[in-house]
Structures are given as C-alpha cells and as structure tokens.
Amino acid sequence: MDLHTMTQSLVTLAEDNMAFFSSQGPGETARRLAAVFAGVREQVLGVEPTLGRLLGMAHLFDLDAETPANGYRSLVHTARCCLAHLLHKSRYVASNRRSIFFRTSHNLAELEAYLGTLTQLRALVCYAQCLLTINRPGRLFFEGDERLSAEFLQEYATLYKGCFYGRCLGFQFTPAIRPFLQTICIGLVSFGEHYKRNETGLGVTASSLFTSGRFAIDPELRGAEFERIIQNLDVHFWKAFWNITEIEVLSSLANMTSATVRVSRLLSLPPEAFEMPLTTDPTLTVTISPPLAHTGPGPVLVRLISYDLREGQDSEELSSLTKSEGQWTRELWQRAQQAPRSRSLIVHFHGGGFVAQTSKSHEPYLKSWAQELGAPILSIDYSLAPEAPFPRALEECFFAYCWAVKHCALLGTETEDHSDSDQKALGVMGLVRRDTALLLRDLRLSASSWLNSFLELSGRKSQKTSQPVAEPMRRSVSEAALAQPEGPLGTDSLKNLTLKDLSRRSSSDTSDTPDMSLSAETLVPSKPSDINFLVKPEDPLEEVEARNELSAKDRGRGALDPFPKGFRPRRSSQGATRMPFHSLPIVSNPFVSPLLAPDHMLKTLPPVHIVACALDPMLDDSVMFARRLRSLGKPVTLRVVEDLPHGFLTLAALCRETRQATELCVERIRLILTPPAAPPV
C-alpha cells in the first residue's frame, strides 16, 4: 500500500471511530477513545506531506540505484510501520467496538502508546526535513555552522524517547525479533534499578530477575524508566550491563548452541618488540613496538578459534602463550589427526561500543564462521574505555595484527611471502568501529561499523533522527569519547611505523608525501576543521528546490525550530546532557573516524565489503564511506539487510532473518578468501 492510500484510509477510520465514541455519552473511556482518534487524525494529516517529500528526495542520497538505502529512507520506513500498526488497530476497533468481547482498556492503551510514538516520529521527521533543506544531494551529514549543529543536537537530546521503549518497543523490526528486544529492555531497566545498590555484576543480575516482572506487566513504566536511565547513568552502567554476557554460566549456555570447535584458546601476547619486513622492500624491516599508551607496556589478549586442529596450533610455543580461563575452559584435541595449515587467517575485532565485552561474547558466531569458512579466527580482546582511552585499543589491535602476520604458522596458517603482494594469504575482517585505517591486507568486512564518531557526537547525521532505539549505543560511544584524559596521548609505540611503509605504495613516492605516522601531532589535530573536510562546503552542486526553503534568516536565527505552528512534541523531563564536542578533536581523528581520513590514506585500503542494516543508526556512515571509496576508484560493495537492529551477528541463531544476514557476511568473506576462478582466455 502506498503512503497516500495508507494515510487516507487511516484518516477515514479515525474519523469514523471518533464520531462513534463521541456519541457514546460522557464516559471517561469513550472520551479518551474519541480524543485518541482525533489525535491520530491530526498527526497523520500533519506527517504525510513531510514523509512524501522525504520519500520523493531520498533517492538523491542513495549510494546507487541498486542500493536504495539511507537514513531518510529508514525514517520513512519507521514512520510507515507505525502508521501501519495504527491502521490495523483502527480497523480492528471499527469492526469490534460494539462487541461484548471488545477489550476497551487494552485497545485504548495501545492506541495511546502508538499515538505518542507517531507524535515523536513526526518531530523526528521535521528534524530530517531541516537536514534535507541544508544538506546537498548525496550528502547525508549536516553541513550547517557549528552553532546550528549544537542547537540541533540539543533539540534532539531533549526529545522524550520513552515511548520507543515501552508498549511500542521494536515495532519497526521483524516480528520474530521483538520478544528478544523486549526481554533485553526489561532486563536493562531492572538492572538499572539495582545498579547503584549493588556494584557486583552477578548480584545486580540476580536482584534484577526478581523485580523484572513489573516492567513486563507495565510497558509505560518500562519506557519511563528507560528514559531516566539513558539520561542519567554513565558509561560504567552500560559496561556492566553488556558485560553480563561475559558471566561464565551465560557464556557457556550460549556456546552450547554454537558449533563445536577443536581449538578455542585465550592467548596472551607478550609486550615484546619484533621486526617485520616492509611490503615495499622486504630487505628492510620496521620495529613493531608493544602498546604503550596510558598504561605502558602490557600483554595483549587474543582468542584463537579453529574448527580443526591444524599444524602449529598444538606447538609448545603457542601453548606457552595460553592463558587459563578457569574451570569452564574446554578444548577438544585430536592429536592423532591434524589438518594441514589453512591458506587464510581471519583477524576479528569485536563490537561493544568501545567500552564493553570481549571475544567471549562473540564466540558463538565466530565458532560457526570457523567451521563454515574453514579458516582459523583470531579475535582481539583490545582494552576498553574509559579505563583505557584512545589510542590504547588501536595500538593493541595493530600490535596483535602484526603479531598474527609474523606468527601465522603458529596459528595454523601458511606463512605469507611478504614480497608477493598479490597472494591472498590473509583475510582481514574488521568489526571494531575504528579499525579501517590500519587493516591494509586483502579484505575488510565491516558489519554495522561506526565510521564517523565526530558526526555522531555533533548531531550531524540524517540517520540519527531515525533511530531512537539506538540511544544506549549513542550514550556509550559519547561517554567513551568524553573519557579522554588531559595531556598528550601516548603514541610512542607507533611513532616509528608509518602507513606509507606498510601499505604497498610504490617506490616512486616523492619526498613531500605526507608522513602518516601515528604521532601525537597526527592523532590530535589543533581543531576539528583540520581534518573534518566532510563538513566543509565544496564546489557548488545543483541544489534541489527544498534546500531553498531554509533562508539565510533561518540559518542565522538564535534557536532551531523546525516544527509547524501548533505542533509541539513531548519533551524529556530528565533534561539534556550537553556534550562539548567542539572541544573534542579526538573524534575527528581519522583513526577514530575513518570516514574523515584524507584520500591518500583511503587509497591504501584493500577491497572493502560492508554489510549494513537499514534500521541501524550507522547506516549513513556505511553509505558515505562506500561513496568515498568509490569516488577514489577503490573496490567496495555495500549490502543492506532489512528489518534488523544493530548487532545482529550476536543474534545469528535467533530467527530466519538474522541467520540470513549472518550468512551474507560469511558469503562476503568466502568470496575474498576463495575468489572465483578466472574464465579461460
């Protein structure tokens, strides 16, 4: 059903139901039902024109005609899902309102909840229209001045979002995943209620189980409590909650449903420097120093997962690096039969918003991947913020990656000839949200990656307005960025290693090629505009008509007010958290936000394959990053899956849709590890 037909049908039903309940006398329930249908009519008539304009212009922001996906489309889809549910409910009421079995209270509560959600979605649509009038075609990020950007972020932060976590939670996702999302939300608000009383994770978890029932029974209470949590609790809360999956009992239960592998070892890489040959000249070497930032030299933990026991994986040298994980550690050895070394090694960087989880939380799907791909997987347990701020994790990821390349024989992989730049001996998959700049080998698969922290913190993303359910993730990333300590960053461990040396650049580079070593000067620009060229005006482009709606007077006014006369959304009673992003040059750093990297850095990347979710707040990052790479002539693919939330990889076994999305990631990796044979000449 097209948008206009849907809205007209809903308006007709709303008017009919409003007239019916208005004639039922002065009763409170009838009055509220009449009022809610009047509200539905008002909001539908108000939101339809703007949705139509967004939908009519959304194609200007797609990567290409074969990839119809961007934040504007996602917002329209979310609003359509809400309208579709209201249409279904309005039809039900019209057909059953005279029945003695009609559950008046239940239907009233659901209608009021979805009306509240539609009202807030209309506000988000107004914000999106404001962005649309400012942004140039194809540019998904806000290009207004800094003051207007700050006002936009403040406006968004003060919107009430509890309605998205209550009775309407997950309405825009596939139905199979909604019960899981509701369980997570109930657990989170119950966990938050007890978090300040008991600081031990297991104690909070146990206490939460006894009080979670009331949040399941009362969705409105759940939404209000969620609103309080996301506005008041800090990054330590999010770290504690998401680390529940690290509890041995829960991780063991999760692993019971995953593939059985022969090798699952936690290794501790010693903080010792080693030499590696340069790709441009293998006769020369460069020293790879151990991580030093903030806490000094220290071991790096990695997890080796292999479906088969391969040559080298049972060596004494590797065994000496094994770190015990306690009584729950189990590993299947078949010493009588070893598989040969694999031609590929997958290096994996787990998600977790920079602040939570380890490879243990991601082990179930990694085990399945090890079986399906027939290649060992090395997952890096990088240090987490705020205890270990940037660039500690980046240094550890780089150190572990280089160690894996040098010691791949120990990991069950064929030794790579570094002089042969065409040999596909290593497949590199990046899932950490700031890994792009350094992973320079044969493959980078990014699943729902965060590519532009600066634009996220500054409120400059069109996709921000379409994902109210992503607020916890935004908060965790914001807190992690704000956790940067005073003083210079510790980057001595990487000062001697330049990307120019490791990126297969030709020997014809001139002396005035910029040195992209990870020096303090590189990591901390003097101000965001030093690197943030994506938010600077470029050569004039043909502007669409809607852009002219925002006059110079509107741009210069003191307050952002995108709403039509008479419409005001609900505001949060918790107040807004101010994030001083102007004073955070770290988030515009290309090693934090790869989308802001200069061209000569991105040109060194291997083929990039991105799997994104249409309903993920990081969709715009993926679209814009793919566009950047394509403009530079770099091989890049973007596949967008529908109706799934961020983090679908950890939900691979939940339903058919998550299994299919995970299989798509596996297929992308397999395509690089085993490319199709060239046709005969």
Could you give a quick summary of the protein structure above?
The chain is an alpha/beta fold. It is built from 22 helices and ten strands.
- The total count of helices amounts to 22
Give the C-alpha Rg. Answer: 26 Å
The amount of beta strand, in percent, is: 5-15%
Structure summary, number of beta strands? 10
Query: What is the count of structural domains?
Result: 3
Mean of all residue-level pLDDT scores = 76
Task: Report how far the terminal alpha carbons are from each other.
Answer: 50 Å
Helical residue percent? 40-55%
Q: CATH topology of the largest domain, what is it called?
A: Rossmann fold
CATH class division of the largest domain: Alpha Beta
> What characteristic shape results from the CA principal axes?
elongated
CATH evolutionary superfamily of the largest domain: Alpha/Beta hydrolase fold, catalytic domain
CATH architecture of the largest domain: 3-Layer(aba) Sandwich
| Biggest sheet, spatial arrangement of strands | 1-4-6-5-7
